[in-house]
Amino acid sequence: MACGSVSGNTVVEGLRLDNVSHKYRKTDFLLSVDCFSGDRGEVICLLGPSGCGKSTILKLIAGLERLRTGVIMVNGRVLSDAQNNTHVPTEKRNVGLVFQHPSLFHHQTVEENVAFAVKEQGKERKTQRALHMLRLLGMDSHRGAYPHMLSGGQQQLVTIARTMAQNPEIILLDEPFSNLDTILRSKIRADVLSIIRRERITTLLVTHDPEEALEVADKIYVIREGRIVQCGAPGEIYNNPKDAHLAQFFGKSNYFESVVCDGKVAISGVGDIDASSFGDGSKVAVCMRPEAIFLRQSSGIPATVKLVRFFNSMVYIEVQGCAYWMKFTGSVLPEVGDVISVSFDLGKVLLFRL
């Protein structure tokens, strides 16, 4: 798997992991990452289910765990090198770490919490830096408040302001928005990452949510059972997933299994998909995104509406005894029982060898 990105000779890698491995005592789980990198200022997303090794990678970068093998570098500076027994202490790594829950000093005001992290000497400089970060995150009007007087979202914004106030070389976000409600989460996440990008701070965001990864990341690394299974830009991973598991992981997908016959896979009532590269008799997984099915005003295939999801305009349809999810693009959603006319873009159907 290729590591890093190339856009000229002036690219600076904000983060790089080479041949990194780690194992906890008394467990069989082994983390093994051949290569993992991102350019300075990028938002890198580490995506995977619970227990796959995401938080372990964050702990290794932060210096909370020691490497078994490999090297970790931030902005070209070696933080960990197992072979040379190099391990820069956490407090000297200049790494910002934000967890799921706010971590503030409850006996200090908002301003005092943020100023505590400022490295500049002198009370006036600390105050100026703290207020600057609070203004960026829209929390300067709460400078005199104590944590218990703030909402959970506001507390997390102050936590992030404090992290940024220390002027870190990299920020590690361990699902920091997961405890917020949906609408607030989207807004705060967008605002925070916009500011971090403007400040040109390399950011590693850990999440189990594919939608979040696709929405915010410059680069996504998908991890499964301690290993990176695919990396790339959001569009690349969504449109060209490495396997059927990933295809289904990134949003709802119409999935079924079939066998190649005469170089094709037949979809009942719809048409044939070219599968000549698999060979006749091969078992394949067929993944069809909902957006591969679209509404036609006429001359399409009749489909009966079985279920409607209003929030995301998803419609469950039946075509000649086969059921599919489609992304409805019409101005008015149909009702259950309606017969609509649809077409299938077979060029968007994904095939994977079983």
UniProtKB/TrEMBL annotation:
Family matches, as PROSITE patterns: ABC_TRANSPORTER_1, ABC_TRANSPORTER_2
Gene3D superfamilies, alphabetized: P-loop containing nucleotide triphosphate hydrolases (3.40.50.300)
Gene Ontology cellular-component annotations: membrane
SUPFAM superfamilies the UniProt entry points to: MOP-like, P-loop containing nucleoside triphosphate hydrolases
GO biological process: quaternary ammonium group transport
Single annotated GO MF: ATP binding
Recorded superkingdom: Bacteria
Sequence ranges assigned to domain ABC transporter in this UniProt record: 15-250
Xref: InterPro entries: AAA+_ATPase, ABC_SmlMolc_Importer, ABC_transporter-like_ATP-bd, ABC_transporter-like_CS, ABC_transpr_FbpC, Mo/tungstate-bd_C_term_dom, P-loop_NTPase
Keywords per UniProt: ATP-binding, Cell membrane, Ion transport, Iron, Iron transport, Membrane, Nucleotide-binding, Transport
Main function: Part of an ABC transporter complex. Transmembrane domains (TMD) form a pore in the inner membrane and the ATP-binding domain (NBD) is responsible for energy generation.
PANTHER family: SPERMIDINE/PUTRESCINE IMPORT ATP-BINDING PROTEIN POTA (PTHR42781), SPERMIDINE_PUTRESCINE IMPORT ATP-BINDING PROTEIN POTA (PTHR42781:SF4)
Protein name per Swiss-Prot or TrEMBL: ABC transporter ATP-binding protein
Lineage, uppermost ranks: Bacteria, Pseudomonadati, Pseudomonadota, Alphaproteobacteria, Rickettsiales
